[in-house]
Design brief:
The complex is a heterodimer of chains A (443) and B (481).
Chain A (H helix, E strand, L loop, with lengths): L2 H20 L7 H17 L15 H5 L3 E2 L7 H8 L6 E6 L2 E2 L13 E5 H6 L17 H8 L4 E6 L9 E8 L4 E3 L2 E6 L4 E11 L4 E11 L4 E9 L5 E10 L4 E8 L4 E10 L5 E10 L4 E10 L5 E10 L4 E10 L7 E10 L5 E10 L5 E9 L3 H9 L4 H17 L5 H23 L1
Parallel strand pairs in A: 1-7, 2-6, 5-8, 6-9, 7-10, 8-10, 9-11, 10-12, 11-13, 12-14, 13-15, 14-16, 15-17, 16-18, 17-19, 18-20, 19-21
Antiparallel strand pairs in A: 2-3, 4-5
Helix pairs in contact in A: 1-2, 2-6, 7-8
Chain B lengths: L4 H8 L13 E3 L6 H10 L4 H16 L22 E3 L13 H9 L4 H8 L2 E6 L2 E5 L2 H6 L3 E4 H7 L1 H7 L10 H9 L4 E5 L9 E6 L10 E6 L4 E9 L7 E3 L2 E6 L4 E9 L11 E11 L5 E8 L4 E4 L2 E4 L5 E10 L4 E4 L2 E4 L5 E11 L3 E10 L7 E11 L4 E10 L5 E10 L2 H9 L4 H17 L4 H15 L5
Parallel strand pairs in B: 3-7, 6-8, 7-9, 8-11, 9-12, 10-13, 11-13, 12-14, 13-15, 13-16, 14-17, 15-18, 16-19, 17-20, 18-21, 19-21, 20-22, 21-23, 22-24
Antiparallel strand pairs in B: 1-2, 3-4, 5-6
Helix pairs in contact in B: 2-3, 3-9, 7-8, 10-11, 11-12
The chains are: A alpha/beta (443), B alpha/beta (481).
């Protein structure tokens, strides 16, 4: 990879941005046009990251830089069919984003429970809704792909949970990308959880069949005091998709944010999650589970910033690797000066099923306060021989014993998904894919 | 824990005990670095042509390199042209016995608490004392010579055993390895050389005492230890440096090679001047240490106690090339006041059934910043490789930092890699328990810290362990509260 083509690609995207601002983007309000132009200049200045940069050492995005992606328009895809695949809770309110645009015909906003306002971000911008002003407030513009998303910011979903609202039914965000041609989409999700509210949101990413596409999603979450939010993200894009996701969570006093990220699809997947514990007694739990095979790559980067005292964080990431796949885990925990009584726990495990698979696990603790409890653990290996022996001694076949152990291994993360139909479906998809991989081994 | 403010103040005023300057006439090359200086160093040391060529290659490679910035430390930029690259005591007469050593130098060592003669007699330790850059005394050589063990200064080795030096120099740390290793390769002045022949178990622990003395001279040591098949050696390295106001650069290179069934145990106690309470002065310790387990069933153990230097930047590493080879790393790093340490290890598993253990204990006090940075790489062919890593941090005070950056890279399914890290402070209840039983706060903390470091200290040779424990106490003086 030489430097010049990458720089050229930056130019191509900057040109695409110019076309966008003169076309569809021209009618946007001035503040949004300003925000976009700041985004594009940041991206042009930063360029595509290279493996010489610490944050991107093990994930080479040259393939994205080298593909001439154009901004997706509202071309219809086989969305309805794909939707059937994930229609797990008919009672839930649905917000569907097709190639970066809100699709009212597939969404069911009429089912939104009381206390929740949600819908198209473009609409919120158009009607100058107060939550639209949150945009760009919480993200780190130092990240090139966040800057790129901001440059093309146009539509996406927003969910606002009113103060004191307790919402029992989950809200389902479905983001579908792809279709004919090499397309890119930069959907944005904005979630505002009001004080004392309680809700759960599922976010599903699907890929429409077609050529490779590039999804660059940015999610901003603002947690009010005492708010409680569960966010389940499952990524089931096609094996040719480039999926880059950046999530930023800002937590106020005594709020709790829990995320479960399940990654099953994608050719190159990068999940960046940054949680800032900005109020006393806040709690964040980031869990993740991924299955990666073929020559795919999954990179989970998490940053938990303990900025205030008495906060707790918990992280559990588990992966299964097969084929020539690669996985990266980078878990950074920062404990600022004065963030006393912090309790942070991080665990990362990887199970290798093939000699050609590769794992890079990089936990990072940066601690500037003394009265803290911080632990991290990483373990990489294969199934425990003794456990296998134990099961086989009780009459199980080798395959059954192995399946049982893998199920138990992945189950630890999946069982944290409280929406049962979603959990059952993700379990089924994960194990179907796993069975296919294991069957390939037999051949 | 504000009750012991008095104790803190009293202890904080404890001066660096080993700060004094020995006035010996020195032979110093003018400041600056150029090809001519490299040639001059080589000429002064009467080196053969091939070594000069090697130095020049390293120098040219160094010119093209840039100083690394990824490490988690901050310091004033180093002026490489402001350093004098060679200093040797002028008196260079061959010495037959300890009595011939310059009395002033001998007195320096005495102040450090390592009277050579006494050590010769009592401890049975052969000491190769490096005063600044040239060895001034080597003891017990005869006894070692009978077994065929070569233990001498690097320059002597170049003269007397050029074939061995030529074979192994740069074989583990190439002259292009990194910025500081390249610099060292170009301008190294002296160091130690050990060769243990086939099947020989070195009967005593080999030891050198490094000292940086002349003002404004960087110390560029080079150590090479080779253990032939079935041989075993334990090597100790310990350092104290006099008090200076300017920062001094120390960029050493240590290379270890073990052939089949050989074992090297390399222990370090590093207590260079850490700078004063305001973070002024102190040594920059940028060291490249690496061992190559070349043969089957060979073993390399690094044990280090790092209490000194204003900045420590070192990663003693093992390349586990031979099948069934073993690498170990035990470390205690203490940072107090404004000290910064970025240290750890790399375990590179290439051979089958290779095993490695990493135990790292970081203690931060005052405004010290302590970073563990380590890498465990399991290569594709390293079937059944195993690694266990544990890094614990202890924080004393609320203005210090402890950071952990382990990198795990696994390319083999049969590998088993475990990493655990924890960070904690000395519990108030633990101190309360001790104080209740009449143990002073100071002693209680020393006791708890000793317990915290026990796993590493027990890997040190006896005499060293005692010294290390003392050093730890001195380093942490004035920090508890």
């Amino acid at each position: 990879m030489t430097m010049s083509p990458v720089a050229e690609r930056t130019d191509a995207l900057v040109a695409e941005h110019a076309r966008f601002t003169q076309g569809r983007g021209a009618t946007s309000p001035a503040w949004l046009r300003d925000l976009r132009s700041r985004g594009v200049s940041r991206f042009a200045a930063l360029g595509f990251p290279t493996v010489r940069q610490e944050e991107w050492r093990f994930t080479n995005v040259a393939a994205i830089a080298d593909t001439p992606f154009r901004l997706a328009d509202k071309t219809p895809t086989n969305a309805a069919q794909l939707m059937a695949r994930v229609a797990v809770f008919p009672t839930a309110a649905r917000i569907v984003i097709l190639n970066g645009h809100f699709a009212p015909e597939l969404s069911s906003l009429d089912k939104l429970p009381p206390g929740v306002v949600a819908g198209s971000l473009a609409n919120a911008i158009l009607h100058n809704r107060p939550e639209a002003t949150h945009l760009g407030q919480m993200t780190c513009e130092q990240a090139p792909f966040v800057a790129l998303n901001t440059a093309f910011l146009e539509d996406g979903a927003f969910v606002v949970i009113a103060a004191n609202a307790v919402v029992a039914d989950p809200i389902h965000l479905i983001v579908i990308n792809g279709g004919a041609g090499k397309m890119m989409a930069h959907p944005r999700t904005l979630i505002v959880a009001g004080p004392n509210s309680r809700a759960s949101i599922a976010q599903t990413f699907l890929g429409a069949a077609g050529e490779c596409h590039f999804t660059n999603v940015v999610t901003e979450v603002s947690m009010g005091e005492n708010a409680h939010l569960d966010l389940y993200s499952d990524q089931r894009e096609t094996d040719t998709a480039y999926h880059l996701s950046s999530m930023h969570i800002q937590l106020q006093r005594h709020s709790t944010f829990r995320s479960r990220t399940v990654t099953l699809g994608g050719k190159l997947v990068r999940n960046d999650i940054t949680a800032v514990l900005a109020g006393d007694g806040a709690h964040v739990a980031l869990d993740g589970c991924y299955l990666v095979d073929g020559d795919r790559l999954v990179d989970n980067h998490t940053t938990i910033d303990h900025a205030t005292p008495h906060c707790t964080s918990h992280e559990l990431y588990k992966g299964i690797l097969d084929g020539k796949s690669r996985a990266v885990f980078n878990g950074r925990i920062i404990v600022r000066e004065d963030a006393q009584k912090t309790d942070a726990k991080q665990t990362n495990r990887a199970l290798l099923l093939s000699d050609e698979a590769q794992v890079n696990s990089n936990p990072q603790l940066e601690i500037f306060a003394d009265d803290v409890k911080c632990t991290h653990g990483a373990a990489i290996g294969q199934l425990d021989d003794e456990a296998l022996f134990y099961l086989r001694a009780r009459g199980l076949t080798e395959r059954d014993a192995r399946d049982m152990l893998i199920h138990a291994y992945a189950g630890e993360v999946l069982e944290g998904i409280a929406i049962e139909p979603l959990r059952v479906q993700l379990e089924r998809e994960l194990f179907t894919q796993l069975d296919r991989d294991l069957a390939d081994h037999k051949k | 824990m504000s009750t012991s403010t008095e104790v803190i103040e009293q202890l904080a005023n404890t001066e660096y005990k080993y700060g004094f300057i020995t006035d010996v006439e020195q032979d110093i090359v003018p400041k600056g670095l150029s090809e001519d200086v490299v040639r001059l160093i080589s000429a002064k040391k009467e080196e053969p042509e091939w070594l000069l060529e090697w130095r020049l290659r390293a120098y040219r490679a160094w010119l093209k390199m840039t100083e690394p910035t990824w490490q988690n430390v901050t310091y004033e930029p180093i002026d490489y042209q402001g350093i004098s690259y060679y200093a040797a005591p002028k008196e260079k007469k061959k010495l037959g016995s300890m009595d011939e050593v310059d009395p002033e130098i001998r007195a320096t060592f005495a102040k450090l608490g390592i009277p050579l003669i006494e050590q010769q007699l009592l401890a049975g330790v052969a000491v190769d004392a490096v005063f600044d850059s040239v060895s001034v005394a080597t003891t017990f050589r005869e006894k070692l010579g009978k077994l065929g063990i070569i233990f001498c200064s690097f320059s002597e080795a170049v003269k007397e055993h050029p074939e061995l030096v030529k074979q192994y120099l740069g074989s583990v740390v190439p002259h292009t390895d990194n910025f500081f290793a390249a610099l060292n390769s170009a301008v190294f002045t002296d160091g130690s050389f050990v060769f243990v022949p086939k099947g020989v178990r070195c009967p005593m622990e080999l030891s050198t005492y490094f000292r940086i003395n002349a003002k404004d001279t960087g110390q560029f040591e080079r150590t090479l230890i080779v253990c032939d098949e079935g041989a075993t050696v334990s090597y100790l390295e310990g350092c104290t440096a006099p008090k200076r106001d300017e920062n001094q650069l120390h960029a050493a290179v240590v290379e270890l090679v073990t052939l089949e069934n050989a074992t090297i145990k390399y222990s370090t106690v590093q207590n260079w001047y850490p700078g004063d309470k305001q973070g002024k002065g102190g040594i920059y310790n940028f060291v490249t240490k690496r061992g190559l387990c070349k043969g089957r069933k060979s073993k390399i153990t690094w044990t280090q106690v790092e209490t000194g230097s204003s900045i420590t930047w070192k990663y003693p590493s093992c390349i586990l090339q031979g099948d069934d080879s073993v690498g170990e790393f035990y470390s205690v790093a203490v940072t107090n006041n404004y000290q910064q340490a970025d240290t750890g290890t790399k375990m590179i598993h290439l051979g089958k059934n290779t095993r490695s253990t990493i135990v790292s204990k970081g203690i931060s006090a005052g405004r010290g910043q302590n970073t563990y940075r380590g890498a465990v790489k399991i290569g594709k062919n390293a079937q059944h490789a195993r690694n266990y890593s544990q890094c614990d941090s202890l924080l004393i005070g609320d203005r210090c930092g402890a950071h952990t950056f382990p990198y795990l890279e696994i390319k083999n399914t049969s590998a088993s890699v475990e990493h655990e890290a924890s960070t904690s402070k000395i519990g108030e209840d633990q101190i309360f328990y001790c104080e209740q039983r009449g143990i002073s706060k100071e002693d209680a903390i020393n006791m708890i810290v000793s317990g915290f470091c026990k796993e590493v200290f027990r890997e040190l040779p006896m005499e060293f362990a005692v010294e290390a424990q003392k050093l730890l106490g001195i380093s942490l003086e004035g920090s508890v509260g």
